[in-house]
Design a protein that fits this description.
CATH topology of the largest domain in chain A: MetI-like fold
Structural class of chain B: mainly alpha
Number of domains of chain B: 1
Order of helices and strands of chain B: HHHEEHHHHHHHHH
CATH superfamily of chain B: MetI-like
Number of strands of chain A: 0
Number of helices of chain A: 11
Distance between the termini of chain B: 25 Å
Helix content of chain B: over 70%
Strand content of chain A: under 5%
Distance between the termini of chain A: 45 Å
Oligomer: heterodimer
Order of helices and strands of chain A: HHHHHHHHHHH
CATH architecture of chain B: Orthogonal Bundle
CATH class of chain B: Mainly Alpha
Largest sheet of chain A: none
CATH topology of chain B: MetI-like fold
Shape of chain B: globular
Number of helices of chain B: 12
CATH superfamily of the largest domain in chain A: MetI-like
Largest interface: A-B, 95 and 93 residues
């Protein structure tokens, strides 16, 4: 009887410990987000969005250049990365379904999803920045696109695979060629999933700073020219946070708040959509 | 394919375009490997492919470079981060699968995964302005007074606690990688057949005994896979550590000293490298990092695939 009690107590202790680890994890989430909110909200003001940076050390100014630059880089990265990713995923799930090449590319993509982003930055520096002789927004967009492609490709593959094969057979039976089946039937069935995957991949690259350091670089002036170095929020945060001025730190917090809120909203939205669409 | 072999011409074009798009992944991977290798050839020639790994010097003026200090920093921060993250992550996974009431499973799962969604630059900011001062004021002096007084391990906590050091960087890395191990372990735990668990309960096992003797052994491949992914992520993490490590090229026994990792070196020095041999040595570091993380991630993928296949039978 005593031994039984001991085992029950042991079990209880183990589960109290496991509950504590979960609380520990949530504690950091709350701590970090709370900290960003507290520092960030106090630092928010309208100048941040409508003014360009003041000269170093001078109070005031904003990060309009970085907001616009970040938007442009992310936009073009999406325009490059999403079509390549979606089409590539289509090949794996449809034309090459079950073939060796599909397995290899799928596994390789899974690996590339987690490969260090800074390495991608050095790669793009060598193939675009060096030959052109200058940093550019395009180089930044290409670097982000390269990070996006494997993510979008794998989600697309998974989402297309979820569409039941009998649906395709029904369309074949009506005499539709495969490309029509894919575009008009399969894509429709998987649209929510693919769009969510794209959203999540945008959220992911929005927070990247490492691949932009040697590609888009930075620019303290307002610019929409993708052929020139262009400012981004993440690189500005790095520069401002490491810099010596208090006003820079404040602006870095404000920029951090904007990025964090944007990413968290998209991530939560994406998860909710997936749950609502696929777990019913 | 099930349908007729006779292909529509548009179908051929479409399949070709999608094929090219999917091959881009192979091209990018091969391209990275090739470019990093050619760019670092100058450094490989001068310092030797393997000898570079053992050289501690990193002196742009004397043009003498070596990877030892950066690799050391990378291995120490990654190792410490894993020590911090693994028990927590496995505990979280056990909580979500076995302990938590149903209505909490979803929210707790999402909360832990949001930790992975926070961009690394935010971790870096927070680390620099919030965690580092806390470490310097409270945690590091406390460690010095307790563990630091012990023989042998004492040398890990020597020096003035400034917060900008290996310990703080490892803490942040550890928090960052919890979600990767946790979510993959959770999936692995969920794959344990209910019948096996139920038969253990039927012979009178407690819940913890079921977790310890049934679930964990059953899912260990998946858990190892999750740990390997975390390891791969931690090796390549840049911005979170760049803020709090100080980029100091030294091999130090104390965790309270500033140091450098491969990624921190790249982030801080890449655009400042004014000589070919300097840039080439940085590329060599990038090549080493790419190879290390690629191998680790490949092993992770292999383990996870193997774990999944075992349950499909």
């Amino acid at each position: 009887m005593r031994r039984e009690r001991l085992r029950v107590i042991q079990s209880r202790i183990a589960f109290v410990l496991s509950t504590l680890t979960a609380l520990f994890g949530i504690f950091w989430l709350v701590f970090i987000i709370g900290d960003v909110l507290i520092h960030g909200i106090g630092a928010l003001n309208i100048n941040l969005f409508i003014k360009d940076p003041a000269p170093a050390g001078v109070e005031g100014g904003g990060l309009r250049n970085a907001f616009v630059g970040h938007l442009l880089i992310t936009l073009f990265a999406t325009l490059i990365g999403v079509p390549v990713g979606v089409l590539g995923g289509t090949f794996l799930a449809e034309y090459a379904r079950g073939k060796r090449i599909a397995q290899i590319i799928s596994i390789l993509s899974d690996i590339m999803v987690s490969v260090p982003a800074i390495v991608v930055g050095t790669f793009v520096y060598a193939i675009i920045v060096k030959p052109l002789g200058h940093f550019s927004g395009w180089a930044g967009a290409v670097a982000l696109a390269m990070i996006m492609i494997p993510v979008v490709l794998r989600t697309t593959e998974d989402m297309l695979s979820l569409v039941s094969w009998t649906v395709r057979e029904a369309a074949f039976a009506l005499g539709a060629p495969y490309y029509k089946v894919i575009i008009q039937v399969v894509y429709r069935g998987a649209a929510t999933g693919i769009l969510t995957g794209i959203l999540l991949s945008i959220a992911r690259v929005t927070g990247e700073a490492a691949p932009l350091l040697f590609t888009a670089f930075n620019n303290s002036f307002f610019s929409t020219n993708m052929n020139e170095p262009i400012a981004s929020l993440t690189v500005s945060i790095f520069q401002y946070a490491m810099g010596p001025y208090e006003s820079w730190h404040t602006q870095a917090w404000a920029a951090s708040l904007m990025i964090t809120v944007f990413i968290l909203i998209i991530t939560i939205l994406g998860r909710l959509i997936i749950k609502w669409r696929y777990k019913k | 394919m099930i349908f007729s072999k006779k292909k529509n011409p548009i179908d051929l074009i479409f399949s070709f375009i999608t094929g090219v798009a999917s091959i881009s992944v192979i091209l990018i991977t091969a391209g990275i490997l090739y470019v990093l290798f050619t760019e670092s050839s100058l450094s490989i020639e001068k310092f030797g492919f393997f000898k570079f790994l053992t050289l501690v010097d990193w002196d742009p003026v004397k043009e003498s470079f070596g990877a030892a200090a950066a690799l050391y920093g990378t291995l120490i921060t990654t190792g410490l981060a894993l020590i911090i993250a693994i028990p927590i992550a496995v505990g979280v996974a056990i909580f979500i699968t076995e302990v938590s009431p149903n209505f909490l499973k979803g929210p707790v799962g999402i909360a832990i995964e949001l930790l992975a969604a926070i961009p690394s630059i935010i971790y870096g900011m927070w680390g620099l302005f919030t965690l580092a001062p806390i470490m310097a004021k409270y945690i590091e002096p406390f460690l010095q007074k307790t563990i630091g007084e012990l023989p042998l391990v004492g040398i890990l906590f020597e020096g003035t606690p400034l917060g900008i050091d290996l310990l703080t960087a490892s803490m942040i890395l550890g928090i960052m990688i919890i979600p990767f191990t946790a979510s993959i372990s959770r999936d692995a735990f969920n794959l344990t057949p209910a019948v096996v668990k139920e038969s253990a309960y039927a012979v009178g096992a407690t819940k913890w005994e079921v977790v310890k003797d049934i679930v964990l052994p059953y899912s260990k491949l998946g858990v190892f896979g999750g740990i390997a992914i975390s390891l791969g992520r931690a090796l390549g993490e840049t911005m979170a550590v760049a803020f709090v490590l100080g980029n100091n090229n030294q091999i130090t026994t104390s965790l309270l000293d500033a140091a450098a990792t491969v990624t921190v070196k790249l982030a801080n020095e890449f655009t400042e490298a004014d000589k070919d041999i300097y840039l080439s040595s940085l590329y060599y570091l990038a090549l080493l990092l790419f190879i290390m993380s690629f191998i680790v991630l490949a092993i992770a993928k292999f383990l996870i695939l193997k774990a999944e296949r075992r349950y499909q039978r």
